[in-house]
Amino acid sequence: MPAKNASVLGFSQGVGWDELVGYVTQTTRKNVRIQAIGDAHWRNATAALSRFPDQDLILIRYTDSPLYRTHSILHEFGHLLLGHDGCTQSKDTVRDDAHEQAAELLAYQLAQRLYRPGDYEDLRVLG
Ligand SMILES: [Zn+2]
How many angstroms separate the alpha carbon of residue 73 from the centre of ligand 1? Predict the structure, then answer.
């Protein structure tokens, strides 16, 4: 069943990548494959999502920074968790598409849970 937003996921701060991917594949009931492809000449999109009967395929641009690639993956996870058929985002697409906005919002919410430390003792180590 597609999730409505990250608040229903129940992830605590500091969720691990494997747990997040597991949640996505459990929700979609399909494996997800992530493949870095393309280059700086791949200009019309920085990521793509193709849904097949046996798996979901996320393509990301390997020339992007690791942080941006992660965000692109989280955006596509957003589409998967929201039950969308795919991603229509491209440089030529108007960004006010409701599905794109919802996936982008969920990507930011997932990122907050992924990047924050799970234990505030971790913060004390950093001062
Ligand atoms: Zn999208």
Answer: 10
Question: Tens digit of pLDDT for each residue in 17-41?
Answer: 999 999 999 999 999 999 998 776 7
Residue type at position 55:
Q
**Above 90 in pLDDT, residue 119?**
no
- The rounded Å distance from CA 21 to ligand 1 centre is 18
Cβ proximity of 26 and 50 under 8 Å: no
Distances, alpha carbon 74 to alpha carbons 20, 32, 106, 118, in Å:
10, 12, 8, 19
How close is the Cα of 76 to the center of ligand 1, in Å?
6
Q: Which of 2-6, 14-18, 73-77, 85-89 has the lowest mean pLDDT?
A: 2-6
Tell me, yes or no, whether 70 lies in a domain: yes
Q: Is 84 part of any domain?
A: yes
Cα 121 to ligand 1 centroid, rounded to whole Å: 36
Find the 94 Cα to ligand 1 centroid distance in Å: 11
For residue 55, give its domain range: 9-116
85 alpha-carbon distance from chain centroid: 14
* Tens digit of each residue's pLDDT (9 = 90 or more) over 56-75: 999 998 888 999 999 999 99
In total, how many domains does the chain have? 1
Report if residue 121 sits inside a domain: no
Query: Is residue 85 in a domain?
Result: yes
